[in-house]
Amino acid sequence: MSTTLARARTLLFAPGHRPDRFAKASASGAGLVVLDLEDAVAPADKEAARGHVRDWLADGHPCAVRVNASGTPWHEDDLDALSGHDCVVMVPKSESAAVLSGITSRTGVGVLALVETAAGVLEAPRIAAATGVERLALGTFDLAAELGVSPDDHAAMAWSRGALVLASAAAAIAPPVDGVTGDVGDDERLRSDVRRAAAVGFSGKLCIHPRQVALAEEQLAPAAEEVRWARTVLAGVEAAGGAAVVVVEGRMVDKPVIDRARRILEEQSANDG
Fold it and tell me: Which positions ≥6 away from 251 have C-beta within 8 Å?
């Protein structure tokens, strides 16, 4: 599951109390399905939703599960339901590295830390480095509400996005996953949101409707020109006998450039395979 989570470009939510949507979400083409026990489920439906998710996991379906936050009445039972299964636990309101490591120790599953508070953003370096944390995701709506800004204001959210990108790179985990685009009918807004997030170092997108998946996947995949450039760079290096510094298409190519070219081709190969 660690590899699946690290490579996933799109993570699609499905409400835990709607088992009729689980298979549809799995067939959507999303890199990873996130069964939601938190925001999408009313308190009266929490127990039933947990049972549906437990049954889905018992049938061998890999997925992530967003549990209820630590300190809520449902958190402990949610964790018990995940123990021993092939899944990832998405932890909302992630603010403490110790809490996240404790969840991994207890359940035996990896953590996708959903950072959606100011405290969580400030703790991002420690969260990303915590034992069991495999990737970070940004909860833009909750964070924006706390900051008193619009979740659609990229300038207002820029510092928080940068903090998660830097924390992930420093901890040597996969680049983070960006928050949802609320208007599921606005394709151009989705394209813009994904492009902007990718430009600052995000490599994934949280989706709330299956129709968002294909478009987000397309925007997050390496562009054809990037793939052509990467192949040209590596071919030039090979032709030069592996020299530390070469000139390809009139530009100097050294180790950082070679590393970037390899990452592009590895990403394309991993997701095409």
Answer: none
Query: Which residue is it, tokens 């300190």?
Result: 71
pTM: 0.89
pLDDT at position 264: 76
Same domain, 130 and 259: no
Q: Indicate which CATH number applies to the domain containing 189.
A: 3.20.20.60
How many angstroms separate the CA atoms of 262 and 259, rounded? 5
Q: Are strands 251-253 and 246-248 parallel, antiparallel or unpaired?
A: antiparallel
Q: Which residues contact 263 (CB under 8 A, 6 or more apart)?
A: none
Place of tokens 């996933």: 8
- Locate 175 and state its tokens: 């680049």
Same domain, 192 and 233: no
Distance CA 39, CA 15 (A): 9
Residues 68 and 144 in one domain: yes
In tens, the pLDDT along 13-54 reads: 999 999 999 999 999 999 999 999 999 999 999 999 999 999
| Predicted local confidence at residue 57, as pLDDT | 96
- Nearest Cα neighbor of 111 from 93, 127, 133, 128 is 133
Domain count, the chain: 2
Domain range for 9 is 2-220
